[in-house]
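Why do we bother with holo predictions? Because pocket geometry can differ from the apo form. Keep that in mind while you read this record for 3-hydroxy-3-methylglutaryl-coenzyme A.
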Amino acid sequence: MHPVRIVEVGPRDGLQNEARILPPATRAQLVQMLAQAGLRHIEAGAFVSPRWVPQMRGSDEVLWLLLEQPGLHLSALVPNEQGMRSALACGCREVAVFAAASETFSQRNTNCSIDESLVRFEPVAALAREHGVSLRGYISCVVDCPYEGAIAPGRVADLCLKLQQLGCDEISLGDTTGAGTPRQIRQLVDACAAAVPLAMLAGHFHDTYGMAVANVLAALEAGITVFDASVSGLGGCPYSPGASGNLATEDLVYLLEGLGLPTGIDLDSLVDAGAWIDTVLERQTASRVARARLAARTVRV
Ligand code: HMG
Ligand code: MG
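The structure, written out:
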């Protein structure tokens, strides 16, 4: 199997969903701890409307504090030209736009239809090209939508093609509700890989139904080599009621290392970073691996 790249999305996808709003310095400290654990690709913030997602206010400060570190790829979410200009102003070199395979989710998440969202992304893509900034595209609800139910793989594949034509160099397939099962993920990846090169695709699985690790395995077998994950399983989605956290990075690292796929991440440092942010947020970890590691520490002689 090919080497795998992990994109840590906890500081954005995780924290955007927490009731407690953290100041930029605390968010930057989390990013710093994740980088020290060995993560090299970290989504550090979002330049979205603070009225819609107040948790991401001050993302420019998070990036300012951290951008100069060699070898560390920090990215941010942008919904439109306004967000893109803010990202560029603070020196961000990697951005991500986000669309949905479901019309209702698109309206709830971004107040526009799928086609309107693609129009909004055009100036973002033009600015990305002009400034040599890399552009990722997220697709939410790739298997299931909280409002519309099952989503046909063909709809996702069509959107993959449109995002590629827009100029995205990577497309992250988001199982937002976490309802997907390995067979569905396999069918989805095969359908999308018939529309765009397989090497462009990334897996973004939520663990609501406990399927995320199994879905990673199915996606790996289908040839995907980029996976998103969130430290301690932080997050969910504010527009997907009941969706629990993203796949925990600790669980992903444990799986990959167990498969003989080196990640370059020190699992114990990652567990420490997760335990630290859980204390700040006064929450329990959603990572089974983190729980097991922390329990093992108490009995080790
Ligand atoms: P809108 O209200 O339709 O936008 O929101 P608008 O263009 O009419 O502007 C309204 C106000 O928002 C204006 O301010 C704008 O300046 C401001 P006012 O004049 O009223 O004071 N505004 C902005 N402010 C800061 N940054 C911006 C920006 N744009 C407009 N970029 C909009 C449309 C898209 C902006 C809004 O719906 C929004 O910000 N949505 C973000 C939703 C979000 O962040 N969702 C979570 C991320 S997606 C996700 O988590 C899924 C993913 O993880 C994959 C998966 O798991 O499925 C990626
Ligand atoms: Mg997500």
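The mean pLDDT is 95.
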